[in-house]
Amino acid sequence: MLLSATIKATANGGEKMRNLIGFRLLLLSLFFCILQSDFISVNAFTGYYGVNYGRVADNIPSPERVVAILRAAKIRNVKIFDANHSVLNAFKGTGLELNVMVPNEILKDMSDDTGIAVQWVKENVQPFLPDTHIRGISVGNEILGVTEIGVQQALPGAIKNLYNALNKLQLADKIEVSTPHSAAVFANSFPPSSSTFKEDVLVYLKPILELFSQNKVPFYVNFYPFLVYKGDPEHIDINYALFKSNSGIYDVKTGLHYDNMLDAQIDATYTALEAAGFGDMEVVVSETGWASSGDKDEEGATVENARTYNYNLRKRLFKKKGTPLKPKIPVRAYVFALFNEDLKFGPGSERHFGLFKADGTIAYDIGVTGPKSAAASPSSLSLKDIQARCWSVPYTVVLMACLQFLLLALS
């Protein structure tokens, strides 16, 4: 009887010890998850598929309706081309991840004066936090190799002053700073292994890359296989541009085979970054899309091609695959665009990149869904949304609370 009681007590004690160890491991896991989540929050693009929400139009839905469209389509990552307050207010409490933009027109002033950068953040970012998830700020759009030289010269200084402003306002560890480039930054991009940046662009690009490298910011670049195909339809296989079955291209230097143009463009960027001394920097596609209509001389601008490109792009991104050169780094991209924008200048194609029509219905089937009704409104926060909002709690406060709780539990 005594032996049986002893064995039983020992078993109970062992069970309690195992439970205690399990509880401690659970607390440690929670602790490290909180540490990890704080660092992840600096990343402006938290998924693989996002959308550019342009508003150069007079017939598109209100920002509130746009929220319903995005949630119904399950598109979480959104990039806008300004910091419109109506949009920022509409996105409050939705859990959608937003990247705003400093307009090209103020870059010179922002480069000359940190105070202007501070004021811009105070007016266009800080008042909307934390309810609106502003995860990133793009400084200008397609500046290098495109705009007049004075704006190009101002870009590095504007980026640096925006960093200084975020530091001053204690937001530097919460918001990513970036700048999207066009294909005009490249001296050559084909084949991918021969790609380099233009020498006159590198003068301004290098200090930007150095700053971004220190802060682990990706290289954002806009790629449009549609524009490449449109420029030379006689020599480019449209199937190669549309992710359809084709013979592809073979890069002799690397021995890599490419079955679609976007992968080749991304790897050309990795090659140029390597040549510039920044081989560890990730490449993110900040714009890509296909026009569903255009002028008579715009080859390939059809609804069927737009549907094919965007459907195959979405499918490719959700596979979370890398490129031939960087197979372990999944491709991430913002598609252009959410709506057709009827007030945009330029060729007809510029006004026909939308995934959705002006009334909020789907332009063509690529596997996303629209709102069930025109009166659809943002739904309540999901568990993921609540988790996403935890970034607003100061890191040190969370850390100290976790440490105190952990020490009590382990004592």
Overview in brief:
This protein is α/β, with parallel strands linked by helices and 411 residues long. The protein has 13 helices and 13 strands.
How would you describe this structure to a colleague?
It comes from Iris pallida (Sweet iris). It is an enzyme of class 3 (hydrolase). Belongs to the glycosyl hydrolase 17 family. The chain has 411 residues and is of the alpha/beta class. It has one domain (41-379): Glycosidases (TIM Barrel, Alpha-Beta Barrel). It is 42% helix and 12% strand. The protein is built from 13 helices and 13 strands. The chain has helices spanning 2-40, 63-72, 85-90, 107-112, 114-124, 149-168, 199-214, 225-231, 238-241, 261-276, 303-318, 383-388, 395-410, and strands spanning 49-52, 77-79, 97-102, 133-139, 176-178, 180-181, 186-188, 196-197, 219-222, 249-251, 256-258, 283-288, 333-336. A nine-stranded parallel sheet has the order 5-4-3-2-1-13-12-9-6. β2 (77-79), α3 and β3 form a beta-alpha-beta unit. The radius of gyration is 25 Å and the shape is globular. It starts with a helix and ends with a helix. The model is unreliable at 5-10, 25-41 and 373-399 (pLDDT under 50).
